[in-house]
Design goal:
The protein is mainly α. It has two domains: 42 residues, no CATH class; 345 residues, Citrate Synthase, domain 1. Helices cover 49% and strands 5% of the residues. It has 17 helices and five strands. The strands form two sheets. It has a three-stranded antiparallel β-sheet. A two-stranded antiparallel sheet has the order 1-2. Helix 5 runs antiparallel to helix 10, helix 6 packs parallel to helix 7 and helix 9 runs antiparallel to helix 10. It is globular. The N and C termini lie far apart (57 Å). 38% of the residues are buried. The structure holds carboxymethyl coenzyme *A. Carboxymethyl coenzyme *A binds next to helix 16.
Length: 435
């Protein structure tokens, strides 16, 4: 008998089963043997929203939600935010190790030299309505990349995989910047290979008539840090989408487009946009108590608060809050900052939030910084998507290389009708009041 095991008694049959426990988990498939008879399919576990189900073994990102810990490949997020840059972190997340000098040079060169997109992609972006949401444009743009690189279907080949990874990390900022310029009715700016990853992104967004765009060093660094903080976050909604879609062995452009789509939602990456809208709606400190009352009455959510995993604090929120001051020295302080600070103070003292372990998450302050840097709210989730691309790809690679993974296909508990006989349309009773 294994020492780490679970003894399970099925009270329907009186039978007892011994289930091994490995890495703190039982295998759901081990439940299949628990049956009432030969006709019984076997016991399933029911877990809507994956509240207590590990869908994979991963070696990329570690979160300890109770202790507020986030580490990429073992490196604490605080240290990476302080000392690293986004491309180095992207390399780390994807490769498992920090790059050597030579590896880093090659990596930066490769990314920098894949930032341009086919001119037809520009035409695709031009086809959007003038007020199209930037995330909608990004979902489409990333999906469309798939049609330009048909060889990407060959995800079983490591060299092909690597090339698509480089292309995606390089081109997503270009598509994002096109979306931004499109909304403003401005001509799109092309990448500048002399600039850093974030410096070039700022160039593609904000370059006007100057011959050479010079990014502000503080803002360039702030964006690096924000990108580092958003690079990966283990099995969140969008990563799960990338893994699930990628498990069909579709190319990574389509899988990442699914991730962007999932991120767009207001409970996920769209939350930073919603925070700003919420703060603007509250407008002033004196209106906070009424807003909080509305949240407690169930009329609204306090956006930027709460997290499925963090039940103490979100370490990313702490770093962002500190960084906000540096950014506001260069830009102007956000007029909504006092509202945000007071909202946080009141919520953290209120039993409703305390008892539910609701703390500010990464999205509570990031929007204020983005706003101060000159981004419209629609771009906030886009910035998240750029940064998360490296994490999605690391998770996609891990999934493709994992011999235990197969096409993702959950089970269901069917509680619908049993077999029924079909009746011709004229012979069905009209539903009273319609359906
Ligand atoms: N405001 C008010 N009440 C909340 C909030 C909130 N932001 N978040 C959770 N609750 C309440 C919820 O109503 C529930 O109360 P009760 O027990 O009385 O029914 C309790 O807290 C537990 O919440 P839950 O919905 O079961 O928690 P979850 O793990 O399913 O949801 C969440 C996590 C992040 C979706 C949720 O906290 C939320 O909607 N937050 C606001 C949106 C947000 O800021 N999202 C960004 C998440 S961090 C970045 C990212 O990953 O994208």
């Amino acid at each position: 008998m294994p020492s780490d095991s679970l003894t399970l008694t099925d009270n329907r049959t009186g039978k007892t089963y011994e289930l091994p426990i490995t890495n703190g988990a039982i295998r759901a498939m081990d439940l299949r043997q628990v049956r009432t008879g030969p006709e019984d399919f076997g016991l399933l576990s029911y877990d809507p929203a994956f509240m207590n189900t590990a869908s994979t073994i991963s070696r990329i990102t570690e979160i300890d939600g109770d202790r507020g810990i986030l580490r990429y490949r073992g490196y604490p997020i605080e240290e990476l935010a302080e000392r690293s840059n986004y491309l180095e972190v992207a390399y780390l997340v994807l490769h498992g190790e920090l790059p050597t000098l030579t590896e880093m040079d090659q990596w930066v060169y490769d990314i920098t030299h894949h930032t341009w997109v086919h001119e037809n992609l520009k035409k695709l972006m031009e086809g959007f309505h003038y007020d199209a949401h930037a995330m909608g444009m990004l979902v489409s743009g990333v999906g469309a990349l798939s049609t330009f690189y048909p060889e990407a279907k060959n995800g079983g080949d490591p060299a092909t995989r690597r090339l698509q990874v480089v292309r995606l990390i390089a081109k997503v900022p270009t598509l994002a910047a096109f979306a931004y310029r499109h909304n403003l009715g401005l001509p799109y700016n092309y990448p500048d290979n002399d600039l850093s990853y974030t410096g070039n992104f700022l160039n593609m967004l904000f370059k006007a008539t100057e011959a050479k765009y010079q990014p502000n060093a503080t803002l360039e660094r702030a964006l690096e840090v924000l990108f580092i903080l958003h690079a990966d976050h283990e099995q969140n909604c969008s990563t799960n989408a990338v893994r699930a879609v990628g498990s069909s062995q579709v190319d990574p452009y389509c899988a990442v487009a699914a991730g962007v789509a999932a991120l767009y939602g207001p409970l996920h990456g769209g939350a930073n946009e919603e925070v700003l809208r919420m703060l603007a709606e509250i407008g002033s400190k004196d209106r906070i108590p009424a807003f909080i009352k509305g949240v407690k009455d169930g009329n609204a959510k306090l956006m930027g608060f709460g997290h499925r995993v963090y039940k103490n604090y979100d370490p990313r929120a702490k770093i962002i809050k500190r960084m906000a001051d540096e950014v506001f020295e260069v830009t102007r302080p956000s007029p909504l900052l006092p509202v945000a600070l007071e909202l946080e103070r009141i919520a953290l003292e209120d039993d409703y939030f305390v008892s539910r372990k609701l703390y500010p998450n990464v999205d509570f302050y990031s929007g204020l910084i983005y706003q101060a840097m000159g981004f419209p709210v629609e771009m906030f989730p886009v910035l998240f998507a750029i940064a998360r691309t490296s994490g999605w790809l690391a998770q996609w690679q891990e999934m493709r290389a994992d011999p235990e993974q197969k096409i993702a296909r959950p089970r269901q508990l069917y509680l619908g009708s049993g077999q029924r006989a079909y009746r011709e349309i004229g012979k069905r009773e009209e539903a009273p009041g319609g359906r």
